[in-house]
Give the backbone structure.
Amino acid sequence: MKFFIVCPRGLEIPLAEELKEISERSEVKALGAWVIDPPPLNNTGGLGVAGPMSVALAINLHSRIASRCLLQMTHVAYRKEDDIYKAARSLSWEDWITPDQTMRVDLTAHRSPLTSLNFVTLRIKDAVCDRLREVKGARPNIDTELPDVRVQAHLTATHATVYLDTSGQSLFKRGWRDDKGAAPLKENLAAGILALTGWKPEQPLFDPMCGSGTFLIEAAYRGLGIPSGSIRAGLMNPQQDASQSAQDHNQAVKSVDKSEPSKFTRYRPTRVDLVGADQGFGFQRLKPFNTPDLKKQWDGLCIVAKKNIEQGLANANKLKMAACDINENMIAIVKNNWKRAGLPAQSGVLSNVRQIDALVAKSPFAEPGVMLFNPPYGERLEIKGGRDGSERVKGRGARDALPKNNNSPEFMEFLNQFGKHLKDNFQGWQVDVLTADMGLPGQVRMKESKRTPLFNGPLECRLFRFDMKKPDASLGNS
């Protein structure tokens, strides 16, 4: 079988390295060999893998960087829409899905000569439905919100590829996200950036502008060896304070009663499942997964993962991690997200999550480590004041968009001050900054040692690395 593993553009190399690590896990290796394509030279947003169906099981459970795991159904040359329809209709969809399931079709294209991609999408949908009506006497209904089955297609200038999505909802939806706080970046992008920094679990990690805590939680999962799909696989029970749980539950029931389209309309909940968790993974709704062999393989992977989770949580006190944010509301969200992620509140990490202005934050550990952050930009950040910690930055909780730059005198002064603060207080640290502002090195008045192009959705960004010089020991002895 052939798969295409989707990832944020710019993370193809760390994805390839991660897939190699997953394929070499003993419990995965026992299920069959993988052939992983080399990372592409350009940012294509993914790479190919060949192997057994267990590839999909392992990637959905373990990959921190992947967005989706797509199973290739066909790859054909085309000239017009009807060529794609015929190719899709010839596939044995009855071996994969049933007429009583719901489905949706999504299409992407690069340099396709066809004038209406919406029409192509409809033709692929018709092909699947016509095939099932012919073979089974009935066709599936369309559900664009939470379908049982997702069909993906991609067009180039000459070829069409049709896939079945084995992931369901995108894999960045881990199942712990508190929706009331806007996410500055997706979890799999954060995980890929962590891989690019080279951070090791035994090293200190510090985020001085932590927002909702995405870097912190992804680092904890990685450091403790917890699979990224643990909550969606049902291996961990996310925690949540009782008042918020009741509030969400009441809202869910209201949505069902009013028959409004929402993530809860498919059933009347007796408890609130988190985003992504109520749908598990896409492969669990494909017919081959109902075979004893694949279920046994999945159970085997989950048994090993459960043991690793238990061992990891037992070592949570060994994590050297800290974070701060100037907005006290974001600190509350970080701590709630940490608990929802199933991480122990008594680990000691949460005591290192504090409301502090980044301009006055000091090194939280005796030894240097990795500082990683995603600064807010534009009108979503109002800078007021200096470095004494009494002033506040407003709007820190709404970092869902990053304008390309901000040339206001106040913000330029903030960056200038922060660069000086890093030089004075974080000597020996490796500082990694994700930003859409290409001029940031000049604004903090430091020369980057490395810059990596990345994409936060459609927004082009850079991951800048700054190596803060250690103090010269000889000067202290003179």
In short: The first helix runs from residue 12 to 23. The CA atoms of residues 57 and 298 lie 7 Å apart. Residues 240-277, 378-405 have pLDDT under 50 and may be disordered. The two ends are 67 Å apart (CA to CA).
